[in-house]
Amino acid sequence: MTGTPDVRETARKRIEERRGFFPHLIMFLVINTGLIVIWTATNPDGFFWPVFPILFWGAGLLMHAWNAFFARPITEAEVDREAARLDDTDQ
């Protein structure tokens, strides 16, 4: 087994985020497609109300994607650099 317990926990969390993203994406597509079908069947010439759940849920989905694929955990080196920078500005 490699890595410290903290590193392993961070790795486990990132794997869970990635695995959880795709079911979230599928549900977003299925449910919002269903809402568009309902809108089309009931009043296609009226206001396109599915835009609200699409935009708000889409924002949440983008944040989930960011956390799953792009966000980096804060490292001890970054904390040390920031602490040193703060010490320099306090003097």
What features would you describe in this structure?
- This protein has helices at about 5-40, 50-70, 75-90.
- Helix 1 (about 5-40) packs antiparallel against helix 2.
- The chain has three helices and no strands.
- The chain is mostly helical.
- The protein starts with a helix and ends with a helix.
- It is elongated and about 65 Å long.
- It has one domain.
Number of helices: 3
Count of the separate structural domains:
1
User: What is the arithmetic mean of pLDDT?
Assistant: 91
What value does the Rg take, in angstroms?
Answer: 21 Å
Structural class: mainly alpha
Short description:
The protein is mainly α. It has helices at residues 5-42, 51-70, 76-90. The chain has one domain (5-90).
SSE arrangement:
Layout: H1 5-42, H2 51-70, H3 76-90
Helix pairs in contact: 1-2
